[in-house]
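Project outcomes to date are best conveyed with an example. Our students and postdoctoral researchers have been running inverse folding experiments weekly, and each run begins with a structure described purely in C-alpha cells. The record below, which covers 210 residues, was selected by the lab manager from last quarter's runs and is presented without edits.
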C-alpha cells in the first residue's frame, strides 16, 4: 500500500470528496481543515489488497474510498471459507461502530476490490476529532446510525428463502453485481457458489417463462 505524501493533492482530494460526504463541515475553518488533513493518510492501493485484519480497536482505521468498492468478510479457519459481512460502496465511510465507538475487537477483514485511491484515519484520530469538533462527532454518530440500519436490512435479507434472497440482493446491488464474479456475490448472500449459480438459473428461467 503506497502512501502519497503530496499535501496539496491530499488536501484537494479531501475537500472534493471526503468533506462533502461527511456532510457536517459547511463552515470549514482553516485550522479545522489543517487538523483534518494532518490526521488523514492518502494511499494508492492495488486490487484485492487487504486493508485491515481482525484486531483491537487501537489498530483500526476509518477508510474512505474514492473509486473502489470494498468488502468486509469473516474467514472460517476450520472450513477454509469466507463469509461476506458487508459491501462498501464507492465514496462511503468504512468503519466498525462497535470498535470505534465502544472499543470492542474488530472481527472482520476488509478488502478493496478495485485498484484506486483511499483515505484512512486511525480510530484514535477519529476519536480526537470527535472530542474536538461537535459537528464531526454528530456526523460520525449519524454514520453509525446508517450503519445500524444497513445491518438490520442485511439481516432481513439473509433470512429470506434463497431464491428471494438472491433476487433482492441483485436488484439492490446492480453496480456491484455487474463488476464482480459469482464467487464474491455468493459470499454476501451466505450461499456456496454452486447454490448461488443454481438460484440464478432459476431466476433466469422464471424471467423467460414470464
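After processing, the design step wrote out the following sequence:
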Amino acid at each position: 500500500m503506497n502512501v502519497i505524501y503530496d499535501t496539496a493533492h491530499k488536501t484537494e482530494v479531501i475537500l472534493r470528496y471526503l468533506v462533502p460526504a461527511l456532510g457536517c463541515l459547511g463552515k470549514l475553518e482553516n485550522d479545522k481543515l489543517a487538523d483534518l488533513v494532518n490526521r488523514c493518510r492518502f494511499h494508492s492501493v492495488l486490487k484485492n489488497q487487504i486493508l485491515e485484519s481482525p484486531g483491537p480497536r487501537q489498530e483500526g482505521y476509518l477508510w474512505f474510498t474514492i473509486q473502489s468498492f470494498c468488502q468486509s468478510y469473516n474467514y472460517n479457519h476450520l472450513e477454509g471459507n469466507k463469509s461476506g459481512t458487508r459491501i462498501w460502496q464507492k465514496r462511503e465511510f468504512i468503519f466498525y461502530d462497535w470498535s470505534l465507538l465502544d472499543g470492542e475487537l474488530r472481527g472482520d477483514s476488509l478488502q478493496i476490490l478495485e485498484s484506486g485511491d483511499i483515505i484512512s484515519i486511525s480510530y484514535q484520530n477519529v476519536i480526537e476529532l470527535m472530542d474536538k469538533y461537535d459537528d464531526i462527532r454528530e456526523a460520525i454518530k449519524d454514520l453509525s446510525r446508517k450503519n445500524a440500519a444497513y445491518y438490520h436490512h442485511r439481516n432481513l435479507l439473509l433470512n429470506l428463502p434463497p431464491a428471494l434472497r438472491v433476487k433482492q440482493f441483485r436488484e439492490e446491488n446492480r453496480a456491484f453485481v455487474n463488476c464482480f464474479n459469482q464467487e464474491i456475490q455468493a459470499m454476501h448472500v451466505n450461499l456456496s457458489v454452486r447454490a448461488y449459480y443454481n438460484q440464478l438459473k432459476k431466476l433466469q428461467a422464471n424471467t423467460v417463462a414470464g
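The mean pLDDT is 92. Strands lie at 2-4, 41-45, 50-52, 61-65, 70-76, 81-88, 93-94, 109-112, 116-122. The training component of this project remains on track.
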